[in-house]
What does this fold into?
Amino acid sequence: MNFKDVLAEKTELIEQMVCSFLPTVEGYPKTVLDAMAYSVRVGGKRLRPMLMLETHKFFGGKSNAVSSFAAALEMIHTYSLVHDDLPAMDNDDLRRGKPTTWSVYGETMGILAGDALLNYAFEVAARAVEEEPSAQTARALSYLAKKAGIFGMIGGQVVDIESEGTKPTLDTILYIHENKTAALIQAAMVVGAILAGADDEDVKKIESVAYDVGVAFQIKDDILDVTSTAEELGKPIGSDARNEKTTYVSLKGLEDAQKDVEQISRRALATLASCNGENEFLEALIEMLVERGK
Ligand code: IPE
Ligand code: IPE
Ligand code: MG
Ligand code: MG
Ligand code: MG
It folds into this structure.
């Protein structure tokens, strides 16, 4: 099988696995349960759970908790998108090829569906720690919480929004990329490594691999916002310009931005190669992200 077929197969399996953790749509808060399921089920690349599972495999991991953590992370990522699309934030109406959660369920239910996904993610992860109590699962939970929060994704979103209409420096842009995007990629790869029992030196290296993968991923996202189409991306293009965001692309130009994606991804692959593990698919996945079209 070629890489594309394997990728499609793995994506489908992850999709089923993540959706199997969703709560049943019933009872009084049915509307929000339905909005949660809608947001998660509409699709997406499932990159973060995939990176977690593949990093776990890279280190020969055998933890049963990894599926729960992977599902929890995809729920946290999905909540971040649901809130990112709100009128008060990027004000977008298309996500993963479908109308955004707030445009289907209204703003209030959009906010609550995001809150509910975030909290439910931690219910799922905490249950996995209860079922497999160990220093590793506890450390994984604490790392996930940190990277999703103010010293991670939320911190990045704050500065992203506050920088609208201003001319942030490259350092500020890198702070934004490191936090709004690389933080959850770090959560993916580091949790995978921790649960697999990787040693401290390798966990540190994986954190730096994931930093590079995450920053390159966001630079590419900024590129695609200019060069792609809504059909291909499944989300509106030109959203950054409309919101007066200074991006990596507006600061450095398209050509340099793509060169940096390549260079940063090469550095990620070199660091990965120096770790005590093996997984050809993971390497191919990181390479694919450089040339991705969506
Ligand atoms: C979108 O993430 C938000 C960014 C951090 C750029 P993805 O491009 O991974 O979105 P999905 O999950 O595939 O929809
Ligand atoms: C959002 O970055 C990153 C999140 C934490 C959601 P963007 O605002 O660039 O993501 P898209 O382009 O809407 O997916
Ligand atoms: Mg945004
Ligand atoms: Mg956005
Ligand atoms: Mg974007």
Q: What stands out?
A: The pocket of magnesium ion (ligand 5) is lined by residues 221, 225 (CB under 6 Å). The chain has a mean pLDDT of 98. Strands lie at 94-95, 98-99.
